[in-house]
Automatic annotation (TrEMBL):
Its EC number is 3.1.3.25. It comes from the Bacteria. Belongs to the inositol monophosphatase superfamily. The lineage of its organism: Bacteria, Pseudomonadati, Pseudomonadota, Alphaproteobacteria, Caulobacterales. This is Inositol-1-monophosphatase. Mg(2+) 2 binds at residue 90. The keyword Metal-binding applies. Mg(2+) 1 binds at residues 70, 87, 89, 215. Its cofactor is Mg(2+).
Length: 264
């Protein structure tokens, strides 16, 4: 068991503090039968409140670090070598529909490389965390990617493009190429947790396109530190800039990429 560093403690404390508000709001939302606009407004307020809590906690602990958040965009810091990359609520649509599968995502980028990650699911109280070179964990348990080597034994996660987002035709081609060769494809609606679950060996692999840096930054370190491989959906290295991802163990990763290329 690795002991979390002072840096990881800062990140996990910030996540747990922001989660208290999200849990309260989630409980209320589950009770409310609200109008469409009312529900969406409620969730965006929860989102903004959670990001404000994270911003305050992280900025207080590490003054000067830059901050890239889903709600406020980029806030430049005096320390140009460090940037927090934060999604206060990944899985907003799940949250909106009272589906208990969403997460707070915090990554720290140092000179362009992600060096620390926290993905926290407040409902299950699972805190996934990793530091570069030190392994990946959930709460106090070490994570390893799954060991399956064949697609026909594997269950993969993905994201499905929705109204006004993504490339629907391309996704259907990819799904056609992948689904006929695997044991199952799942769509849970929170990319941060899809990546954390690949790190935990629950999912054998994950691919998705049209994602943002705050969806991906923490998860790519979790998977890598759990012994897996993460690239863009084309097999490239600049995942945060490309906004696409393919993550799996070392055996399955090239096989999934092959199926995605066949769909191109």
């Amino acid at each position: 068991m690795s002991t979390p560093s002072a840096l990881l403690k800062v990140m996990s404390d910030a996540a747990r503090k922001a989660a208290r508000g999200l849990n309260r709001d989630f409980g209320e939302l589950a009770e409310l039968q609200v109008s469409r606009k009312g529900a969406a407004d409620f969730v965006s307020a929860a989102d903004i409140k959670a990001e404000q809590s994270l911003f305050e906690s992280l900025t207080k602990a590490r003054p000067g670090y830059g901050f890239l958040g889903e709600e406020r965009g980029m806030v430049e810091g005096t320390d140009k070598t460090h940037t927090w990359i934060v999604d206060p609520l990944d899985g907003t649509t799940n949250f909106l529909h009272a589906i208990p599968h969403f997460a707070i995502n915090i990554a720290l980028q140092r000179e362009g490389a992600v060096v620390a990650a926290v993905t926290y699911n407040p409902v299950s109280n699972e805190l996934f965390w990793a530091e570069k070179g030190k392994g990946a964990f959930v709460n106090d348990r070490r994570l390893r990617v799954a060991v399956r080597q064949r697609l026909d034994e594997s269950v993969l996660a993905t994201g499905i493009p929705f109204l006004g987002h993504g490339q629907h035709a391309r996704f259907l081609k990819e799904l056609h190429q992948v689904s006929q060769r695997v044991a199952g494809v799942r769509r849970f609606g929170a990319a941060a947790l899809d990546l954390a679950w690949v790190a935990a060996g629950r999912m054998d692999g994950f691919w998705e396109r049209d994602l943002s840096p705050w969806d991906l930054a923490a998860g790519l370190l979790l998977v890598t530190e759990a012994g897996g491989k993460v690239t863009t959906a084309e097999g490239g290295d600049d995942i945060l800039a490309a906004g696409s991802v393919c993550a799996a163990n070392l055996d399955l990763h090239p096989l999934i990429l092959e199926r995605l290329r066949a769909a191109a």
